[in-house]
Amino acid sequence: MSIKHQSQRYQKQHQQSRFGNFTYQALVISTLAALMLSACGKNEDVSSSTAEPENPVALSAPSESGVVFSKVTLGHTLDDQKRVVDANTTFGSKDSVYVSVETTGTGKSEIKVKYNQLNTPNADQIEETTQKIDATGTAVTEFQIYHNGGWEPGIYTVEVSIDGKPVATKEFTVQ
């Protein structure tokens, strides 16, 4: 075999080897890129807040009026849009408890909020408040309860109903 023939054969093998490495590298790079792109689409909340956990509540069926319950949030303060700013389920004995009820849909409805104290023999209802709304899309309705003499320590619930149908119940604690 001549030197020229051996050189051509070596070049051919080397080109195949380089092409083989290129194919392998391209495969690895494209696989890593695909994994990275698929991970970019994830939207996981990794916060470690001690605030009120967001309990997913299924949207209620529209009431006869067309208003649909979205969510209820409890906290210490509201913003200018009537939404709770600091979602929480633990309150002090002198705190006001704000309840923000979000709805969607269009129509006139009645939202009722009942406050119950659970650590009593009969789970006493301590207050009930009703507001009428005329919604045109997303609406936020706010409620507030405050005890002049202070809250008794214990566990309480807030029951929300729309047009007489219960849609949500949230517990809160007074320390």
Account of the protein in words:
The chain has 175 residues and is an alpha+beta fold. The protein contains one helix and seven strands. The protein has one helix at 3-40; strands at residues 67-75, 90-91, 97-117, 125-136, 139-145, 154-162, 165-174. Strands 1, 2, 3, 4, 5, 6 and 7 form a seven-stranded mixed beta sheet that branches. A hairpin with a 7-residue loop joins strand 3 (97-117) and strand 4. The termini are far apart. Mean pLDDT is 76; it is low at 31-59.
Which H/E pattern describes the elements? HEEEEEEE
Helix content: 10-25%
Radius of gyration: 31 Å
Q: N-to-C terminal Cα separation, in Å?
A: 95 Å
Q: What's the overall average pLDDT, rounded?
A: 76
- Catalogue the unreliable spans: 31-59
Q: What profile does the largest beta sheet have?
A: 7 strands, mixed
What structural class do you assign from the helix and strand content? Answer: alpha+beta
Q: Looking at the structure, what is the overall shape?
A: globular
Count helical runs. 1
Search tags:
single chain; 175 residues; alpha+beta; 7-stranded mixed sheet; 7 strands; globular
Quick gist of this model?
The protein has 175 residues and is an alpha+beta fold. Helices cover 22% and strands 40% of the residues.
Summarize the helices and strands and which ones pair or pack.
Elements: H1 3-40, E1 67-75, E2 90-91, E3 97-117, E4 125-136, E5 139-145, E6 154-162, E7 165-174
Parallel strand pairs: 2-7
Antiparallel strand pairs: 1-3, 3-4, 3-5, 3-6, 6-7
